[in-house]
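Show me any protein, keeping tokens residue-aligned.
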Amino acid sequence: MDTKTLISEAKARFSHNAAKAILNEKYNNKLLIAEQGGLWKADQSTIAFLSCVMHTQETIVLTDTFNNLVKVNSFQLYCKLLETYNKVMNEWYEELLSLEKVR
């Protein structure tokens, strides 16, 4: 391989990795929602925790992303976080696929 080819491939990889990093930040920010007086991240651990406790506790006190204690309806928060998570992850996946096709 000549130097020009190596440089162009390195630039393409850098651009691709930069684009993935931008997507990561963009969609991680979309996972944040304000609900029931707190700011929550619709992530797997919060959704899993709520899915375990919502059957036994209608209301629960949780810490939000700012470490504020908030009393929430566990089922309603679970549904909202799961809906947000599924929507954002599907959008992120589709955009990542289109990025991979460009590469």
